[in-house]
Amino acid sequence: MRLILKVGITLALALIPAMAIAQSSPITSAEVSAGMPENVRVQPRASTFIPNSAEEDAVQNRLTIFNETQAVQDALFDRRLTICRGC
């Protein structure tokens, strides 16, 4: 009796994932892509992208400061990190 129960449970557990994979998705691709373009290419517009503006310089300065602080923190971490390669 226990053998039949074990076989039944094993068979059920084996078939459930196969049945789940075999089911079709509830949302078809036609529904999803009905209002969406297939390829979207976004390029900066001339009016919004000014490479030498004060705003862009401020962003670049913040990125530079962040990168420098990260480099300092990485160097401190590397000095504190002990990796034993000859153990």
Write the layout of secondary structure elements.
Blueprint: H1 2-22, H2 29-32, H3 54-80
Structure description:
By secondary structure, the chain is mainly alpha-helical. The protein has a domain at 53-87. Helices cover 60% and strands 0% of the residues. The protein contains 3 helices and no strands. The two termini are 55 Å apart.
Main attributes of the structure:
87 residues; mainly alpha; 3 helices; flat
Give a quick summary of the entry:
This protein has helices at 2-22, 29-32, 54-80. The protein has 87 residues and is an all-alpha fold. It has a domain at 53-87.
Helix vs. strand class: mainly alpha
The major beta sheet can be summarized as: none
- Envelope shape: flat
Percent range of helical residues: 55-70%
Strand residues, percent: under 5%
Please report the number of helical segments. Answer: 3
